[in-house]
Each structure stands twice: as C-alpha cells, then as structure tokens.
Specification:
Layout: H1 2-29, H2 36-61, H3 67-92, H4 105-128, H5 132-161, H6 165-184
GO cellular component, one term: plasma membrane
Transmembrane segments: 12-32, 39-64, 70-91, 103-127, 133-154, 161-182
Pfam family, one: Mntp
Length: 185
C-alpha cells in the first residue's frame, strides 16, 4: 500500500512539473482576447493531449530508445518558438490576421507543443513499468487545471497591458521554446 502511495505522490509531483509548461504557455496564450468558454475548451484540449501523449509514450517506451525523447523536445521547442514569434510579429503589424491562434488547427498545435514533453516522460515511465491509469489521470488533471489557471491569469494581465500584452505573451512562448531547446544542448 505504501508503495502505491509513494508512486502516486511521485506521479502527482511529476504531473505538476509537466503542467507548469501548460501554465506558462497558457499564461502567454491567455493574453489573446479569449472568452471563458474558449478558455474552458483550451484547458480540456490540453488535458486530453496530456492524457494521450503520455499514453503513446508509455506504449512506445517499451520499443524506442531515449533518443526519441530528445527529438520530441526539439519539436516541442520549435513549435513554441514559432507560436511566440508569430504572436510578437502580429503586434508589430497593423492587420489583425494571425497565422496561428488557439482555435482549430492552431489549438491542436498549441496543445501538441505543450504536451510533447509528457510524451517524452511517458517513454521513460513505459520503460520503468509505471501504472498507466495513475499516470494518465495525474497528467491529464494537472495539465487541465494548470492551463486554466494560466489562461485566466493571462486574461487578467492582458487587460492591464493593453496592446503590448500579445507581445509579452509571444515573448513568454518564445522564451519557453528556447528553454526547451537549451536543455538539450
């Protein structure tokens, strides 16, 4: 029993740590003018990605080497950099058209970018034989709640900063993408 409690506590801490990127990126993305319903949907989407990405990682962890985890981190970092640069660039231009927004395909890119690291962790957990249901519940719930918190806080900050909020949000995304890539080298 104490072994299961220890594993659950470890998974909760790990889920919280992985959810911090969803919070940070949600903080930046929350600076878009988003309705509460959209914030709710974004949080659920990211939570779902934090369920199926580690599930894929758990399954693949039995078959793939650790080098694939580095590849996933590179892809995630590059996606965040593209999102961040796009947000910064859109504040410099007068027109309102955005290449990537947290709607449709942009939301899927956003969710994918913040959940790729959970795929990498899933690879490792798959190698060590972690309990799949506990991993998925912890990761999904933590990512959903932390995304909502980041988006709601970003929404508040957006109101305070006016037109510069999107540039700040883009800077946060860009910085987080660079941080992911810097961890590799």
């Amino acid at each position: 029993m104490s072994e299961m409690v220890g594993e659950l506590l470890t998974l909760i801490i790990m889920a919280f740590a992985l959810g911090m990127d969803a919070f940070s990126v949600g903080l930046g993305m929350g600076m878009y003018k988003l309705r509460l319903r959209k914030i709710f949907n974004i949080g659920l989407t990211i939570g779902l990605f934090h369920v199926w990405m580690p599930l894929l990682g758990l399954i693949a962890g039995k078959f793939l080497s650790e080098k694939f985890g580095v590849f996933a981190t590179i892809i995630g970092g590059l996606l965040l950099i593209v999102l961040g640069v796009q947000m910064i660039w859109s504040t410099m231009k007068k027109e309102e058209a955005k290449v990537i927004t947290p709607v449709g395909f942009g939301l899927l890119l956003f969710a994918l970018s913040v959940s790729l690291d959970s795929f990498s962790v899933g690879l490792t957990l798959g190698i060590y034989g972690a309990k799949t249901i506990m991993v998925l519940l912890c990761f999904g719930i933590a990512a959903t709640v932390q995304t909502w918190a980041g988006l709601l806080l970003g929404r508040k900050v957006q109101g305070w900063l006016g037109t510069y909020s999107e540039a700040l949000g883009g800077t946060i995304l860009l910085g987080f993408g660079l941080k992911l890539l810097a961890q590799i080298w």
